[in-house]
Amino acid sequence: MAKYVEVPVGPQHPALHEPIMLRVKLDGEVVEGVDIVTGYNHRGVEKLGEKNSWVRDIYIFSRICGICNAVHAQTYTQGVEKLMGVEPPPRAKYIRTIVMELERIHSHMLINAVMAEAIGFDTLFMLIMRDRERVMHLKEIITGQRVHADIHIIGGVKRDLKPETAEKVLRVLDYIEARLKHYKKVFEEDYTIRKRLEDVGKISKQEALKHSLVGPVLRASGVPSDVRVDDPYSAYDELKPNIVVRHEGDSLARMLLRWDEALESVRLIRAAIKNMPKGNPVPKAIKRAAGKGEVFSRVEAPRGELIYHIVSTGGPKPYRIKVRTPSFNNIVNSGFAYIGERLADVPVILTSFDPCISCTERVLVVDEKKGLRKWVPFMALSRGEIRVA
Amino acid sequence: MSPKLKLLREVISNIFSRPATIQYPREPAAVSSEYRGLHYPDLNKCIGCSLCMVDCPANAIKMVKLPPDYTNPKNPRGIYPVVDYGKCVFCYQCVFVCPVKAYITSNKFDMADYVTHNSQALSLKTIRKGDKG
Ligand code: SF4
Ligand code: SF4
Q1: Please, are residues B57 and B89 in contact by the beta-carbon 8 Å criterion?
Q2: For an interface test with B, which of A142, A158, A175, A194 has the most B Cβ atoms less than 10 Å from its Cβ?
Q3: How far apart are CA A383 and CA A354, in angstroms?
Q4: Would the CB atoms of A52 and B96 count as touching at under 8 Å?
Q5: Which residues in chain B have their CB less than 8 angstroms from residue A145's CB?
Q6: Is A112 helix (H, G, I), strand (E, B) or coil?
Q7: Are residues A353 and A258 in contact, defined by beta-carbon separation less than 8 angstroms?
Q8: Chain B neighbors of A137, CB-CB under 8 A
Q9: Whose CA is nearest to atom 4 of ligand 1?
Q10: What is the topology classification, in CATH, of domain A45-324?
Q11: Residues 6+ apart with CB under 8 A from A217
């Protein structure tokens, strides 16, 4: 049997959702293999959805994720609308799109900030998070809360977008756009960042397709796949988003791609506000019962393709709802990307997948030869301050 | 200017500028008027239809009897909703669904306390004096 040291990264992190464990097998500093262990956070959301009405479920499913709540609500409501034969008014579709694109901007800013922190560039983390707060504020003035939008309702949205709010959004977007360009440049040109991210966790096009990776991870490996373009929903058929693709397939490409996507989102929001149709986006009455049937609904979440399979046997409640989140594909299937890298690169690669977790706060270092166990902080690990030998 | 120099300049100027974070609770947090905060039903408007209770995803709403000295002809069942703020997730489905727009909304968010709060006292205050008994 080969002698290696096993380092469990995770599974607990108090700050973010989705605890996960990476059991990293090391030969010296080099990763020989990674077991990805999930299942620490079973919340029973799908079962809860079966027990509640169609309307209540909008809020239940949007609470699967804090960052991507509007896209979860979108995937669920667009599926239910299809099932019920309800068509939301065009203005509602535009408002939903604006909220979802704002979400994409702040999600991409967040993960780039987290990456900066993971590689020890805390100043950059602080600056990005400060600017991200402006985007959160836009979400607050449009929807009523900076995190949970809760603007979707079957057949439309719950609030109209006021002209003065739209103006404010456009004003703040000018600032955000300049900052996004600046941060992209920092990621492109900064020596420290390049040194940590370039050629780390490289995934080829074939590997990305073979392991069913989705979203920015897939696009950074040269595959132009985006649900917004492939299967347009909401206002995307009219807004025509451009797919951002990079070909390097390393961690740096994944991060830079996110900056480009955020800039594309800025363009989309501007276009949505400019071409916003008139009319009342708020439905007068909500449909409460669906007929028999099954729908399959998909949306491009900030992390990739999000899928809902909704089954109805008729009546006021769904029979079954199956949710497939993009992080599931990107995390569970990506064990191969760590092999051959150094231990200190493991957090970098994991962060570059935008895992919606930062379960890796603490690390238990097990020295199998001496039988020693030691807890070390995630930050120390990511900065290479610990030696396992 | 190279991005690194720009970053450095920003960092130095930040040392002398006002902190970006808000010193809550010493300074009030800037919350927009659009914020979905504390809300309670106006008993003069509520017709006791219970729709808000049916739709509340957090089961935060209970229907209770109106005080015995108050009757409202618009509310034949004589019941009104009480929101448990400890359970409420502030989705505003209740506000949206209410057929008579009975909910009074605010952007008050700081409800953390040692005791649990509900909307009962606030709702009872909405009863106009002339309407009593
Ligand atoms: S805001 Fe939402 S959670 Fe709170 S009482 Fe109303 S429906 Fe229930
Ligand atoms: S929905 Fe409105 S009218 Fe009906 S019980 Fe609730 S507050 Fe009263």
Answers
A1: yes
A2: A158
A3: 19
A4: no
A5: 35-36, 90
A6: helix
A7: no
A8: 32
A9: B88
A10: Cytochrome-c3 Hydrogenase; chain B (1.10.645)
A11: A203, A208, A254, A304, A330, A334, A352, A353, A354
* Greatest distance between any 2 Cα atoms in chain B: 75
A172 touching B (Cβ < 8 Å): no
Question: Among A211, A222, A227, A214, which Cα is nearest to A253's?
Answer: A222
Dump pLDDT digits (tens) for B26-36: 888 888 999 99
Q: Which residues pair with A69 in a beta bridge?
A: none
State the 10-residue block means of pLDDT for chain A, 389 residues long: 73 54 85 82 85 94 88 94 93 95 94 88 91 94 92 94 94 95 93 90 92 93 93 91 93 94 95 94 91 93 92 92 87 86 85 61 44 54 53
Asked if the B35-125 domain carries CATH number 3.30.460.10, the reply is: no
* Other CB atoms within 10 Å distance of the CB of residue A287: 16
How does DSSP classify residue B64? E
**CATH 1.10.645.10 domain locations along chain A:** 45-324
Name the residue with higher pLDDT: B1 or A81.
Answer: A81
